Structure formats: structure tokens, C-alpha cells
Amino acid sequence: MREQEIDVVSALPESYSEFVERFEENQALPTCDLASGQGLPCPFCAAAHFTTYPIFTHQARELPHPPQFCSECKRIGQFFFENLHVQEGIIHTRFFVLQLSGPAQPKWFTPKIGWVL
Ligand SMILES: [Zn+2]
User: Fold this and answer.
1) Residues 50, 40: contact at Cβ < 8 Å?
2) Has residue 115 been placed in a domain?
3) Cα of 61 to ligand 1 centre, how many Å?
4) Distance 114 CA to ligand 1 centre (A)
5) CA of 88 relative to ligand 1 center, distance in Å
6) Residue percentage of the chain with pLDDT more than 70
7) Binning pLDDT at 50, 70 and 90, where does residue 85 land?
8) How confident is the model at residue 3, as a pLDDT?
């Protein structure tokens, strides 16, 4: 069991390039039904299965998005959609995440994700 614990710890990214590589590996797009949601990795460590988000539908803007806990990096984050303005019939939105609790983000992780205070 100790070997597995070491594997989990060593799987956490130690640089921004490792983070990006892991994030790309752990994204999970459904093959046929985009409305069912896109599997999003942890925004802090890129661990798989952080949350599933119907990002390609209008539903994404209307659903409450509860805080999510990452069992690997022990952080809690929450996604938000914000409607900015409507221009020529197009709703311009901002999709962002905030950290609610857990350890500080590593020094190499920039720009930092905001905190909810
Ligand atoms: Zn994480």
C-alpha cells in the first residue's frame, strides 16, 4: 500500500508544464452527447474527475455549481458562470473558479486562482 501512496503523491504536478500535460490527459469529453457534460480535471492539480460540467449548453449558466473537493490535493474549488453582457444576440459569459479551502497553491502555479475569503 505504501507504494500506491507514493505514486499518488508523485502524480501531483511539480511544474506548470506537468500541470498542463496532466490536465490535457484527464479531460473527458463524452463522445456522443455534449449536453451530458465535460469531465473537468481539478483546476489546482489536474487530477481526473473533479467535476462534470455541461459547459456547452445554456444549462451550465443556470445550474447551481456546488463546491467540489479534490481528494488528491485536498483543495475545495467552486466554478461560476457570470453573464457579462449581451451583444448582437450573443450572451458573453465568464467561466471561472475560486478556491474555498485547502493548502496554498504552489509557487510555480501562476497566475493564482482566487480565494473566497
Ligand atoms: Zn486537486
Assistant:
1) yes
2) no
3) 24
4) 15
5) 38
6) 73
7) confident
8) 45
Cell of 67: 463546491
- Residue 19: inside a domain: yes
CA of 18 to the centre of ligand 1 (A): 13
Other Cβ atoms less than 10 A from the Cβ of 54: the count is 17
Residue 22 placed within a domain: yes
Say how many Å lie between the CA of residue 9 and the centre of ligand 1: 11
Ion ligand 1 residue ranges (Cβ < 5 Å): 42, 44-45, 47, 70, 72-73
Does the pLDDT at position 63 exceed 70?
A: no
Work out how many domains the chain is built from and give that number: 1
Give residue 62 CA to ligand 1 midpoint distance, Å.
25
E strand or H helix at 3: helix 2-11
Domain-embedded: residue 18: yes
Q: In terms of pLDDT, which residue wins out, 63 or 108? A: 108
Q: DSSP secondary-structure letter at 52?
A: E
Range of the structural domain that residue 93 is part of: 2-101
